[in-house]
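Work Package 3 (structural annotation) set out to generate three-dimensional models for the target panel prioritized at the project kickoff. During this period the team completed the workflow that converts sequence records into discrete structure tokens, so that structures can be stored uniformly alongside our sequence database. As a representative example, we reproduce one entry of 195 residues exactly as it appears in the project archive.
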Amino acid sequence: MAHPLNLSTLLLAGGQGSRLGGIDKGLVSFDGEPVAARLSRLLAQHGNEVLISCNRNADQYRQWADRLVSDPQPDYPGPLLGILSAMRVASGSHLLVVPCDMPLLDAPLLQTLIALASEHPEQAIALQSGDQLQPLICILPLALLGALEQAWQAGQRSPRRWLIEQQVVTLTIAADDPRLLNANTPSEWHTHHQR
């Protein structure tokens, strides 16, 4: 039986953008607006609050978020800490997570993910494209906060490995689904921006 979720949402924009030459990926323009603006608007349709994990450019990100979270330690320790920081402050029962470098994510895909989470409210849910887990597109019960705290303290830094340890339930879509466009170099952004 489906369980109504009280969703908080998280946009992960805390990375270094090393493959983009240090550019903040969430602020790159896509179809005439920053990707973070586009994705936070999408998240706002599905949850009760939008959290953005960012470690720089807070003044810009603040306009799209109900609340900002940042890593409590320096040197960009990775997205798992961004997720942990958001879980510590989220007000909902579950946290819907998306990364800032997939500008073509859409409402139907998130709605399908949410429907699956409603059927498995006590389990972590993640997207899978073909045989590839997409660990940064997931829904996490806030009840997993303690498990994530323990894993982080024990040295876990991989969202994928941590989700597998939680017996994650997956929603599988085609490996070449265009909604998972992931632009990681300036030329890729430029190419897709021109389309």
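The mean pLDDT is 89.
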